[in-house]
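chain below, 70 aa
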Amino acid sequence: MLFAKRLAFKVVGVFLAALLGLAAASQPFDVLTFHWTVALTVSASAAFLALLEGLVGRFTGDPDQPGILR
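prediction:
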């Protein structure tokens, strides 16, 4: 249960960080002209890779940590 909570926190954090980073990089930010589909696709891809890294880390590193580092 602890692993699932940490993994969910990591995946959501990566998604939000990628989305907010893309929004901050657009000069100037406008909600109506922002390319939401591209930003959500990039953010979802980053979150999916974080999920895969966490699942691989379950079997290679510490079983309670969602990462590949020991």
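The chain has a mean pLDDT of 88. The chain has one domain: 2-60.
thats it, cya
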